[in-house]
Amino acid sequence: MHALVIDDEPQVRDFVGEVLRDDGWEVTAVESAEQAFEVLQERHWSAIFCDVILGGADGYSVLRRVKEELPQTKVVLMTGHGSALGALDATAFGAYEYLLKPFGVDELHSLSRSLSSSFQAPAQPGRDPRPRPKSFDSDAELVGLSSIFLDVMKQVGRAASTNFPVLLIGESGTGKELVACALHRRSTRAKKPFVVVNCGTIPSESIESELFGHVKGSVPGAVSDRAGLWEGLDGGTIFLNEITDTTPAFQVKLLRAIHDGEIRRVGSSQPIVLDVRVVAGTNLDVEQEVAVGRFRQDLFYRLNAVSIALPPLRERREDISSLAHSFADQIYSLNPAVTFSREAIELFEKYPWPGNIRELENAVVHAAAMCDGTIRPQDLPERIMNYKEQGASESEENMRPIKPETREKWVSLSEVEGRYVAQVLAHTGGNKQAAARLLGVDRKTLNRMIKRHNIPIYTRTYLSSRVA
Q1: DSSP states of 166-180
Q2: Strands 307-309, 277-282: parallel, antiparallel or unpaired by DSSP?
Q3: How far apart are CA 2 and CA 337, in angstroms?
Q4: Does residue 465 form part of some domain?
Q5: The CA-based dihedral angle spanning residues 324, 325, 327, 332, taken in that order and rounded to the nearest 10 degrees
Q6: What is the pTM of this model?
């Protein structure tokens, strides 16, 4: 087995080379991508270990070239500046592993053994041979460096390189829609449509017609033939969120669409052949739903070929600070930035976040609207402040109520409401539907608030971390 190690730090080259040689590898080490390109065709490389940040061309350039010229060669990207997006992009481009520095001998030995075993295994089926985009223009900001979240991003990247259906499982607010979008954008379908359907919001008697279309007279109010969403998605991806809210009768039709690649409009026997990738999401235990007869077992097995579990926020607490700062940066992208006090971040990290990332986003928007430029504990939603006050280990100082003099002035409840609604609308770029969701009200109530407080609406491109 031959390994090529590329890193501009001599100590890293030496360390990786020494460990690999101990495992029986023949190792060649170079310090730049340009030097690597010169020796790329000299022999068959079993694996290439490459640093992401090099002096000239970076590790992603090496990865792309290797995948084009030596598709059977395994590539391990190494980085001291890791990110969730980095892990996602690396595996989507075809990296075997995304290794965070500093790593130890045991970790490298384990990876070496895994590589050796992979050379003996048959090629994995289902990979899409078509080239993926050279880069990804995504409005989805995936933030976090916790090991559990990086593992999820690697799974998403690997799933993007296949055409299999994908099942995303996670509590409400963990980011299922965001992940589904990221998966689509890193697949060969990236330039084709991506549509999100929340199955729970469509009446059960209407969902088949909405997705697959109908012919005249086949359903109440069908005065003419109408195409469904599916027909406009040929070559693209559909994300069916809350898939467990559908009926077994519809699930039969969905299974046919996935398995046979064809649909029939309601009331028609004429098949329509379409290539649509299905990504489904749920916050329920699907196996339990199958056991009680609410979800078809055959559809579950079809969707569960690739399943990815999204962790709740309470299991990735080390990511909370980064997520909070990311939300604050988005809110104030056109305004002076806000900062967080240490006490506010500590509260965020202790709070259990039953609503997950969506609840955190809401809390940051609320706090940004209430603060004077720095978010402090008193600016946070009451439930988070109360959680701090109920903690058995909190000091007496932290247990004291907020004194009036800690604020520059007290304002009326109406003014607070107006300021908060305006801040949420600014955060969503004038998108009323998104603002209503964050506020927990319907559109009519939001419109009354806007009118009551005379809030101007400024629309702009809404780049958000929407979560499902």
Answers
A1: EEEE--TTS-HHHHH
A2: unpaired
A3: 50
A4: no
A5: 140
A6: 0.73
pLDDT at 467: 45
Amino acid residing at 166: V
Which two tokens mark 282?
């749920």
Q: What is the pLDDT of residues 170-209, one digit of tens each?
A: 999 999 999 999 999 999 999 999 999 999 899 988 999 9
Please state whether beta strands 272-273 and 277-282 pair in parallel, antiparallel, or not at all (unpaired).
Answer: unpaired
Can you read off the two tokens belonging to residue 362? 């809401």
| Helix-, strand-, coil-residue percentages of the chain, each rounded to 5 | 45, 15, 40
Task: Give residue for tokens 């999204």.
Answer: 310
Choose the final residue of a domain: 264, 286, 309: 309
Q: Residue 98 belongs to what domain range?
A: 2-120
β partners of residue 37: none
Q: Could you tell me if 146 and 318 are in contact, meaning their C-beta atoms sit under 8 angstroms apart?
A: yes
The total number of structural domains that make up the chain: 3
Burial class (CB in 10 A: 0-12, 13-18, 19+), 320: buried
Question: Which of the residues in the chain have pLDDT under 70?
Answer: 120-141, 332-336, 388-413, 458-468
pLDDT of 451 reads 81
Residue 45 falls inside a structural domain: yes
Q: Is residue 134 part of a domain?
A: no
pLDDT at residue number 455: 83
How many Cβ atoms are within 10 Å of 137's Cβ, its own excluded?
7
Are residues 96 and 42 part of one domain?
A: yes
For 282, list phi and psi in degrees, rounded to 5.
-155, 155
Whether residue 373 sits in one domain with residue 444: yes
Residues 6+ apart with CB under 8 A from 411: 419
